[in-house]
């Protein structure tokens, strides 16, 4: 006997062939849509002159023109005079001495880059929800801590600080751990 799954598959394939033989002639009845019956007339292409290009010849076989023949066209070239400076040194007479103040440039001070001391901040927690981070910041601010939140890669990080000395951040970590049972990590403060 034939297995039931094979029998169901054969029945399904038969139904598919039967429905295709009924539906396909209705879809593909051979009638052409009216939109495709338009006659499109294309104009003839414009006439471009054909230019024949001479094949490349070696330099030795080209005729050499003399310098006098090629120099006959130089009569058409005009040289543009260069304008003189407003006060040319050769034109200043001794009767009219000109008093000029020497221009001395101020010495350029080399600025040394200001070195910003490392600052430390205490990272308390990281949340996916902005509401959780906001609640913790408000809770820490109510307890008189300088708390703030930053967003990085769709995560909300809660910080306390920054402090100039790492020891101060370490003390804050211990206080917050006792008061809120939150253990944080001390990291370098970044403006970003």
TrEMBL record:
GO biological process, one term: cytokinetic process
Domain SPOR: residue ranges: 114-189
UniProt xrefs under Pfam families: SPOR
Keywords recorded for this protein, A-Z: Membrane, Transmembrane, Transmembrane helix
Native source species: Marinomonas foliarum
Chain coiled-coil ranges: none
Protein name: DedD protein
Taxonomy, superkingdom: Bacteria
Chain segments annotated as transmembrane: 6-28
Entries under InterPro entries matching the protein: Cell_div_SPOR-domain, SPOR-like_dom, SPOR-like_sf
Entry GO MF terms: peptidoglycan binding
């Amino acid at each position: 006997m034939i297995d039931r799954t094979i029998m169901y598959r054969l029945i399904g394939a038969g139904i598919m062939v039967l429905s295709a033989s009924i539906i396909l002639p209705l879809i593909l009845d051979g009638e052409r849509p009216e939109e495709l019956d338009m006659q499109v007339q294309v104009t003839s292409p414009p006439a471009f002159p054909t230019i024949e290009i001479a094949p490349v010849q070696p330099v030795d076989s080209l005729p050499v023109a003399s310098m006098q023949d090629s120099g006959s066209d130089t009569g058409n070239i005009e040289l543009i005079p260069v304008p003189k400076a407003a006060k040319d040194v050769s034109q200043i007479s001794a009767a009219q001495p000109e008093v000029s103040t020497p221009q001395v440039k101020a010495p350029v001070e080399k600025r040394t880059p200001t070195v910003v001391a490392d600052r430390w901040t205490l990272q308390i927690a990281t949340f996916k929800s902005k509401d959780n981070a906001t609640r913790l910041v408000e809770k820490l601010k109510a307890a008189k801590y300088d708390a703030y939140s930053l967003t990085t890669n769709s995560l909300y990080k809660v910080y306390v600080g920054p402090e100039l000395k790492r020891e101060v951040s370490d003390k804050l970590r211990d206080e917050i751990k006792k008061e809120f049972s939150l253990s944080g990590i001390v990291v370098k403060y970044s403006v970003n």
